[in-house]
Design goal:
This protein has 3 helices and 8 strands. Strands 2-3-4 form a 3-stranded antiparallel beta sheet, with no helix packed on it. Helix content is about 20%, strand content about 15%. It folds into 2 domains: about 1-50, no CATH class; about 55-125, Winged helix-like DNA-binding domain superfamily/Winged helix DNA-binding domain (Arc Repressor Mutant, subunit A, Orthogonal Bundle), CATH 1.10.10. The radius of gyration is 16 Å and the shape is elongated. The structure holds zinc ion. Zinc ion binds next to loops.
Length: about 130
């Protein structure tokens, strides 16, 4: 018996397909996960799981720079990605490399982010973000 609404990827999508060898594929994310899906009924599962092919750290840092540049502006991961949980994980890695920083706010549960000056070189990167 299956409850199609019950199991979700970390982004909250329910269009997941179990893989025979463990883990699952989310058709909405278009990504595979090695973890257990989140069970909406019991609360079990890995809600912090990253896709098997995670968002590259530099891609996250570059998108963040495009969005905030060298300004006090901050954004949520969802502002720069349709898969905000995966993006937040990538932004955390960018922060460990000094390219991004998490901004504490008391009003919002979701983390806000901005690029650091160290990420400025990403803006000069062959017009990245100019067309987007
Ligand atoms: Zn998904």
């Amino acid at each position: 018996m299956s409850d199609p609404w019950r199991y979700r990827c970390p982004e909250g999508h329910t269009s997941i397909v179990r893989r025979a060898h463990g883990g699952y594929r989310c058709q909405s994310c278009d990504a595979e996960y090695d973890a257990d899906p989140v069970d909406a009924k019991s609360g079990r599962g890995d809600s912090d799981a990253e896709p098997v092919t995670p968002i590259p750290t530099m891609t996250a840092a570059s998108r963040l720079w495009d969005a905030t540049g060298d300004t006090p502006k901050t954004i949520h991961a969802r502002d720069i990605s349709p898969v905000p949980v995966a993006m937040a994980a990538a932004l955390k890695r960018a922060a460990e490399r000094g390219l991004a920083e998490r901004v504490e706010t008391s009003t919002s549960r979701a983390d806000r982010w901005r690029a650091t000056e160290k990420a400025a070189f990403l803006g000069a990167d062959a017009g990245s973000g100019v067309e987007a």
